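WP5 quarterly update. Target: DNA oxidative demethylase AlkB. Source organism: Lichenicoccus roseus. Length: 219 aa.
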Amino acid sequence: MTDLFAGLGPPLPAREQLGDGAWLLHGHVLQHEAALFAAALAVAAQSPFRRMATRGGGMLSVAMTNCGKVGWISDARGYRYDRIDPLTGHPWPELPSLFGSVAREAAMAAGYDALAPDACLVNRYEPRTKLSLHQDRDELDLAAPIVSVSLGLAATFLFGGLQRNAPTRKVRVESGDVVVWGGASRLAFHAVAPLAAGEHRLAGACRINLTFRRVASPA
Ligand SMILES: O=C(O)CCC(=O)C(=O)O
Ligand SMILES: [Fe+2]
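Structure tokens (predicted):
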């Protein structure tokens, strides 16, 4: 009998461990893919994607926007969170309710308490753009995990250790995948390799990533 699945390799596990307290949840939000993508576009219709400057005088290659109580920004003064979008002069768009429920649930699926995000950074990667090795460390609340949702073109995500020079693990992240890191891995270095060209049925030639964070400690 012909094996229809011959050559496809073993099926991916639902949950792949990337480090202590760090998990890649394969296809975890695939059933919400279209709605999440539409909600991200609605956010960008209010607060457009833009490339941000860096303190060093450069520019991030990835275009970004935010929704939630506070948004992450970078400019000549450095990195910080702000309630106001400097481009529009208005508060960032509200966090769509689907974003809140997905972040809450994905944190729990990775073994954390429900996450109540007060910030969502929306990154738009076009072919050849990348995110260099960094830590997410501008948040006051380091007890809450980071929940990162991939949509659109697949990318190579690099997950390292607590030191910049620690070896990194490279994993492919596809639309609908979620990476959650917290606890002992909360300050792990991570990066996104330059995006390969391609065409995604929903997103076209780009990848959108939603990074949900708890910036302020709960009152
Ligand atoms: O795009 C990703 O997968 C990671 C995003 C990220 O690390 C960040 O926005 O800080
Ligand atoms: Fe990050």
